[in-house]
User: What shape does this take?
Amino acid sequence: MKREFIFLGPPACGKGTQTSKLAKHFGFPHIDTGSLLRAEIASGSENGKIAKSFIDKGHLVPVELVGAIIKNRLSQDDCKNGYILDGYPRSTEQADLLTKINEEIDKDIPAGFCAIYFDTNTDILISRIVNRRSCPQCGEIYNLKYKPPKQENKCDHCGCELTQRKDDNEETAKARFETYFNETAPLIEYYRNKNVLKTINAEGTINDVWKRLLELIEN
Ligand SMILES: [Zn+2]
Assistant: This one.
């Protein structure tokens, strides 16, 4: 059976890592809609040109146009056994469109759709973000709480003073989560009502979550 996955979860919840692992595990394409849109524009296709004209004016690319680009991508041969879609849908309107796209593509193929929701404690995520530091020299990322440097505020490799990204503060982090919850809460409800939502406890190490994820999708 063809398998179709989307991932829902807040920023910094680790879903990016798990998405890539799952794509490798199944040999499915991992389709990130941001990159897809950039590639479409770079290709100079008709859809790409229209998308660019909206972006150049500072407008959002219309839902129908993004839908058409995604439909093209999901119709390609490498998606025939399944795919993992990243960064889409972001609204129930897009979710309706994705359902329609899948119905059109899967007409004669048995397919299983699954939305995986990464459930995690926001306080932990905020503390991950505000404690993040990086080395301006080599780019190594540290976390004062979870992966501290050996010497206080100095890079283990180059001894440089570590710096903090400007948006890695509590206020910005909270605002990002608020946007996320406003956007995603309706989607969680949407997919729960359709009986295709699976919730995963996203706390713990990458391996802990990976094991849970495999278990979840086999059931
Ligand atoms: Zn360094």
In short: The mean pLDDT is 92. Strands lie at 2-8, 30-32, 82-86, 111-119, 132-134, 141-143, 197-201.
